TrEMBL record:
Protein name from the UniProt record: Nicotinate phosphoribosyltransferase
Upper lineage: Eukaryota, Viridiplantae, Streptophyta, Embryophyta, Tracheophyta
Gene Ontology molecular functions: glycosyltransferase activity; metal ion binding; nicotinate phosphoribosyltransferase activity
GO BP term, pick one: NAD+ biosynthetic process via the salvage pathway
Swiss-Prot/TrEMBL cofactor(s): Mn(2+); Mg(2+)
UniProt similarity note: Belongs to the NAPRTase family.
Species whose genome carries this gene: Oryza barthii
């Protein structure tokens, strides 16, 4: 679950505790069994370096948005096993010596260093999102929590960004996924990371309080069908404090406007009798929220009842000095209905001289996803805002990102993980990572180098090599160089610590990076793969270590 930041926005100095469920015990048992084996062998203090990265971009695309960093930093800032947790571990690992549990009681993350790409950045496979350095037993205990905090966060932030790209900058995107999310924790995290990925608001009230995300909502079909008629409102609504019954006056205005709309020249014949229980529901909701009245218009019939009823209430509100917010469509042919609704609104503006009514907001929902929004764009629609839930927060198109956490160095000795599947071979040693930009201002390639190699320089030609394919190589003359990894937790080192940004700053970074990328890398269909490379020196070292570590077979 996403952690609340300092205040609503995030960032700040000393991190506060995260979700109480995210404790040092939120890990796999084998992390503790390995820690015991390290301790038993006297290796638990060995200095280790791990990379956290992923191997393939999600959703068939060629980019990913990094999320979850702040929660990782808050986790290690508060990493400490309690006496109760130690007692539980003793019962779960009864064969372990008492000295091991005394060791566990003493550890924290004061000697851990974390270097990471800023949260909200566009990232690519193989490049470390985070480099974690410290005592090997402690770092192993961080593996599962870090992967848990980063995997879903990055996946759903990427999903949100993809929806933003297909919807376009001008449309409002509303996250409506709480009721369909994988539990309350999933719902809270989804709201936070969808906002970071480019959504404008959420229906999730708790997320609004925790993170300062704008919250939006209207009413349901149940609210509409709960009313019986306009008399029901008049009989049940208390007179206002000045003694005049404003409810009855407003109902009268609504009825007059509905009659005028029905008889208007360009609208005559478009509908007959509207559903009066729906009209009563709209009237009641408008009385409760005259400054933000937005009606769900598809409970009975959109064009023969919902839209005319909305217009009557909106025009009555205008007579009383208020302005309605718009309508929501939650079923049917959204492209057709939005176009027809827009025509109706424009006819109202022309008939009654209501300036701006033709631009009244139209929101669409109903199991929307990337594909349906893309289809709506191709059909032509008049939707101003999309409410998206199930497919967004569950990441229906892909279940997991698949981040991994691999040892790349211990006691200054580089380590490599080999596999018959070359995509699973790790890139050894502690590294520095850079993004190289071309003349047009777009990123060209990400390059990893050894820690002690000189940084790429602007204007100097550099050989970039695919880490495993010897034929894939290219020279690059960068016009701008950006070092990707920053120090977010210095431990006992002298590195200055980057402050955690607010959620709005992270969102702005994400939106800025989407604009900076070359469009062909970001398109939905057949995107161009972005190049990730290593320096010539690191390439040679990878293959030297590979040959050194791989056993030589023997033919019988």
């Amino acid at each position: 679950m996403a952690a609340a930041a300092n205040g609503a926005g995030g960032g700040g100095g000393v991190p506060r505790p995260t979700n109480p469920m995210v404790t040092p015990l939120l890990t796999d048992l084998y992390q503790f069994t390995m820690a015991y084996a390290y301790w038993k062998a006297g290796k638990h203090l060995d200095r280790a370096v791990f990379d956290l990265y992923f191997r393939k971009n999600p959703f068939g695309g060629e980019f990913t948005i990094f999320g979850g960093l702040e929660e990782c930093i808050r986790f290690i800032a508060n990493f400490k096993l309690t006496d109760t947790e130690i007692t539980f571990l003793r019962s779960a690992m009864p064969t372990c010596e008492d000295g091991f549990f005394e060791y566990l009681s003493s550890i924290d993350c004061s000697d851990v260093e974390v270097y990471a790409i800023p949260e909200g950045s566009v990232v690519f496979p193989k490049v470390p999102l985070m480099i974690i350095e410290g005592p090997v037993a402690v770092i192993q205990l961080l593996e599962t929590p870090f992967l848990s905090l980063v995997n879903y966060a990055s996946l759903v932030t990427t999903n949100a960004a993809r929806h933003r790209l297909v919807a376009g900058k001008s449309k409002n995107l509303l996250e409506f996924g709480l009721r369909r999310a994988q539990g309350p924790d999933g719902g809270i995290s989804a709201s936070r990371y969808c906002y970071m990925g480019g959504f404008d608001a959420t229906s999730n009230v708790a997320a609004g309080r925790l993170f300062g995300i704008p919250i939006r909502g209207t009413h349901s079909h149940a609210f509409v069908s709960s009313f019986m008629g306009l008399d029901d409102i008049i009989d049940r609504t208390l007179a206002s404090s000045d003694g005049s019954n404003k409810c009855e006056d407003f109902v009268s205005l609504v009825q007059n406007w509905l009659a005028r709309i029905k008889d208007a020249g360009s609208l005559r014949g478009t509908f007959r009798e509207t559903n009066l229980s729906e009209l009563a529901a709209f009237t009641s909701y408008a009385l409760a929220f005259p400054n933000s009245f937005l009606a769900l218009v598809d409970t009975y019939d959109v064009m023969r009842s919902g839209v005319p009823n909305f217009c009557a209430v909106a025009l009555a509100l205008n007579d009383m000095g208020y302005k309605a917010a718009g309508i929501r469509l939650d079923s049917g042919d959204l492209a057709y209905l939005s176009v027809e609704t827009r025509k109706f609104f424009r006819a109202i503006e022309e008939e009654f001289g209501f300036i701006g009514f033709g631009k009244m907001n139209i929101t669409a929902s109903n199991d929307l996803n990337e594909e349906t929004i893309d289809a709506l764009n191709k059909q032509g629609h008049e939707v101003d805002a999309f409410g998206i839930g199930t497919y967004l927060v569950t990441c229906y198109a892909q279940a997991a990102l698949g981040c991994v956490f691999k040892l790349v160095e211990i006691n200054k000795q580089p380590r490599i993980k080999l596999s018959e599947d070359v995509t699973k071979v790790s890139i050894p040693c502690k590294k520095r990572c850079y993004r190289l930009f071309g003349k047009e201002g777009y990123p060209l390639v990400d390059i990893m180098t050894g820690e002690d190699e000189p940084a790429p320089k602007v204007g100097e030609r550099l050989l970039c090599r695919h880490p495993f394919n010897e034929s894939k190589r290219a020279y690059v003359v960068p016009q701008h160089v950006e070092e990707l990894l920053k120090c977010y937790w210095p431990g006992t080192s002298s590195e200055p610590r980057e402050e955690l940004p607010s959620i709005n700053e992270i969102r702005s970074r994400c939106m800025g990076y989407l604009d900076r990328m070359r469009p062909d890398h970001m398109r939905r269909l057949n995107p161009t793969p972005y190049k990730v490379s290593v320096s010539a020196k690191l390439y040679d070292f990878i293959h030297f270590l590979w040959l050194n570590e791989a056993p030589v077979g023997e033919l019988q």
